[in-house]
Fold each of these.
Amino acid sequence: MSNPIIEKIDKAIIDVEQRLAADIKEADIEQVRIDIFGRNGMFPALSKEMKDVPPEQRRETGQAFNVAKQKFHALLDAAQERLCGGSTDENACDIDLTLPGCKWKAGRKHPVTIMIDDCVAVFRRMGFIVAAGPDMETVYNNFDALNTPRDHPSRDAADTFYFGDGRLLRSQTSPVQIRVMKSQEPPVRIVAPGRCYRRDTPDATHSMNFHQIEGLYIDKDVSMADLKSILLSFAHEMFGPKVKIRLRPHFFPFTEPSVEYDFSCIICEGKGCSVCKNSGWLEIAGAGMVDSNVLETVGYDPEIWSGFAFGMGIERLAMLRHRISDIRWLYENDTRFLEQF
Ligand code: PHE
């Protein structure tokens, strides 16, 4: 004899299985739950029909009824679990755990900035403080006050960017020396990192825009030996205790005597390689004892005060440290390059 309640239940099971099969949403599951167990849902309706079931079918119907209830609960739970990835957290259902996570890329310091920070840290430990000057300088601060003769090649318009109103883009950080000395009495112990500009044709080792760090130390009885010891300490702090330094006579208008100083090659340790062009030495920067003309210009008495100055190229140091073969890498903002630091 057919049993209309069991038939209904069987039909409902197939229907619910279909409804919960495809990719369902939280709301779909809830709707199935309401349709089956809700106040006007299937089970309350079937319960009412139970009283019309003939007594000989009651047992069978009751059993089917209970089995079906469990079946529906199991179907709903399974669907819920598929949706939430097994989490019991209600809110988890809003998160699609199958999506790949998105990784936030943190910004990072540019290798030039890292180098500036490291240089400043080394000189700070030696008692220097940081000074700064503008990129747009006066011809006076960049050249005249630095004892640079009118016919000095660095003044050429082919080398320096002029604005035509007595100002220029500073070609070196040395004008900061003038600004500091004009604004304070000695003693002075400063470093000044900053941008410089020269009309160079860009290539692997030249850029129209680069950075230097200037150092200036003025006190009583400052000698070349002090300069050498500061530069040696810097070399050791920067590249390790094995590095040697060498001073070669040179000329700068604002220092007398002037030197260029080299570090023993940090790559081949002085044996000779392509980076040091087989010389075993790396040219790092210029330095010297501040010329008495400069001291007089800023109003310091050269009979009482003496001192040294140095200036080095930040890019050169960064390129050596990280073995970067072309300065242009530092300015192209290629994230594949920048992400390495
Ligand atoms: N300003 C010089 C340059 O750019 C470097 C320098 C600085 C030399 C201080 C001596 C003293 O080449």
Note: Residues 172, 174, 214, 252, 255, 286-288, 309-311 surround phenylalanine (CB under 6 Å).
Amino acid sequence: MEKIQLPINEYENEILKAVTHNSIVVIIGETGSGKTTQLSQIMHRHGFTKSGRVGITQPRRVAAVSVSRRVASEMGVRIGEEVGYSIRFEDRTSDRTCIKYLTDGCLLRECLSDPELRQYAVIILDEAHERSLNTDILLGLMKKLVRRRSQDLKVIITSATLDGDKFSSFFFKCPVLNIPGKLFPVEILYSMERPASYRESALQTAIDLHTQQPPGDILLFMTGQDDIDKTVSKLEERIRSLDEGSCMDAIILPLHGSLPPEMQVRVFMQVPPNCRRIIVATNIAETSLTVDGVVYVIDPGFVKQRQYNPGTGMYSLDVVQISRVQADQRAGRAGRTRPGKCYRLYPFSVYEHELLEATIPEIQRSSLASAVLHLKSLDLPDIDVLKFDFLDQPSRESLEDALKQLYLIDAIDDDGLITKIGRQMAELPLEPSLARALIAANDLECLSQCLTVAAMLSCENVFTPTSSKGASKKRERVDLNLPDGSGMGDHIQLLEIYEEWHQNHYDVEWCKNHGLQVRSMMFAKDVRQQLSSLMYKITKESLDVMTKESFREKRIMIRKLRKALCVGFANRLAQRMERHNGYRTLCYKAQLVQVHPTACPLEVDDDGLYPEYVLYNELLVTSRPYIRNLCSVEASWVKPIWAKLQHFDIGKLSGRALSTEELNIPTQEVTNCSATVTPKLSENRENIIQSARERFLARKQLKVKK
Ligand code: CDP
Ligand code: MG
């Protein structure tokens, strides 16, 4: 591949000088200036990889994969050799790999087995402006790590926005290099008012541009896969209906995080002459992926954001207004190769007065349970979670919420120390609840089934959304001849669907005939495979799909599975309200929530009552609060969980209690009280496996005796 000259290459010497003389350097550069693809190569060319790898983190999986492929091809090597990537469930690196792209979550997981990250000589925290939760934790960890490895580790923080001073003051006033971009002027045009439908307005703008404006690609920002798919098909339809020869050809390309790899590649391919590309993308095209050739940007001003409300314990996936920083980034995409135009589908007054200055960092909109669990499991000395060095401190409320959840699901003990269970959970690339459910399932001997449920839950949606209007709200699962969850809820239905698919030899046609998305089902199968091999390390048991034939056996197994799920989802239990309300209205923390219309029907008891308690996977606030993916649980399982909530000391959970005095407790006492001992990680891993094995054998013995 020919070597292209990017702005960053002109500053190679300055970068080298700064990195040589400083442990931490912040590099600010316009999107497309070459930070992601070039910095790693610069470090490699100048010998930094002699003593270790260059690791470059990406907040998005798609970016890690696509960018590493690009770098491999620039260097003329095969992916997985000198240049590789590592994302959740996929590691494409080898002994020869010296440039490794990985998601920030992956690097965090690597801290577990190697807290000093010894394989790396250089760590580049890329796209720091995105402020993903994981990157934020890594920032805090890097601050500690550079002190410990001051002689042999270089850390580079890159950002596409002008937040250099903030990073610099966080990192002991480290130097900030500004790489001037080569942006052409972008003319910004505003709508007179907000359109009734941003989708319709974006569509019309795209058609107008295509029919009236000179050549140049169009980049249209949408909020998610759903509206991208709809917009793409509508655009195709409208363009087909244009008069032959009235304007140039057009190729319409979707671009989002769950696009299959072969579709992602299409966006970077050359197009035939006299053909305009219209790229319909999520905010992935804002900074993480640069598509060259864009001259027109259409910005409806929205983004889909997941946010968490610690007060109610609710998550919602909302379409919200972008920030001014995002709006400017979007506009910038139009001026990369020549002067461009950006059409903002909102008035200037909105830009000026309504948009937030910058996006709220993910850490401030998240449940911190996984983050805190990671922190707890890193074995870093004296970590008091409520005092961890975050670039932006999360609210105390949300940190406390996370600690409570971890305590409820036995990941940390009364003293805030990670438990054996917590360690096992941290090893699993799953949210804490699911990880906990799997561990409980292992103890209850229904792990195989629980793995299937976890795998199915890891796909966004296995059901093909029905397009006909009447059916769109409520999916006609029953009509499709799908299993009904045996009256126990969605988790069980997902299990039954998978098992039936298994019995049909994973037939693609079977999925289609039953209204299931083939890609999602295949993904579930893949994830299940990988989860089993992860769990195999603990169980040493084969975890193939095992269907229970007899009704009685099946019933017993389902009950165990529900119990295991209940342990994992201890912080997501809802209680039935009143009889006359039926089961669709439940009480949760004194608020009313509704069962999502897509939920599969639950069994009623002899008195016609729905289960007193259900667990749910997701609490979603759309027009009203809904719980989605639910499963009935028994009251006797819930009682001990709620009892646990009655007494705990949040300060202790946070780690505060480990004062020097307490650490000086004579060894004997400590060993007697196993819950307060946190052995060193390396020994501990062995211990976990060993003790799991022992527990397993003990259970087997017990059964034999019975
Ligand atoms: O990270 P930053 O935004 O500074 O730039 P980059 O991602 O390193 O991109 C530098 C150049 O490589 C841009 O012109 C991209 O269009 C190009 N690139 C590409 O063509 N294909 C990729 N998969 C990644 C980057
Ligand atoms: Mg980049």
Note: Residues 6, 29, 31-38, 66-67, 70, 268, 290, 292 surround cytidine-5'-diphosphate (ligand 1) (CB under 6 Å).
